[in-house]
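Researcher: Structure for this, please.
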Amino acid sequence: MADEASDQDGGRESGRGSAPRHSRRLSDKILIAFHHACDQADFEVAEQLLRILEMMLTRRPVSPDANRRRNMESLVAAHERLWHLRHPDATEK
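Model: Predicted structure, token format:
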């Protein structure tokens, strides 16, 4: 069971004490944590994670990022999800 959790977290590869594996970017992990907080209805944590993600994605990149547009689209979608969760009575027209 512990091996399952570490594999899902991108922790260590199964095997002989191999080095940590970083299969996902930190921003991806924060986005996953944001969605998990939303699923748990912990909107304060979700909002803080979203602020951190926004700071990471909007600061000047060290190197050009080909995924910047996709990252920004994910950030906008996350903002929209949190807004809809906080305003369940609002209807789209």
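Researcher: Any notable elements?
Model: DSSP finds four helices and no strands in the chain. The chain has one domain: 24-93.
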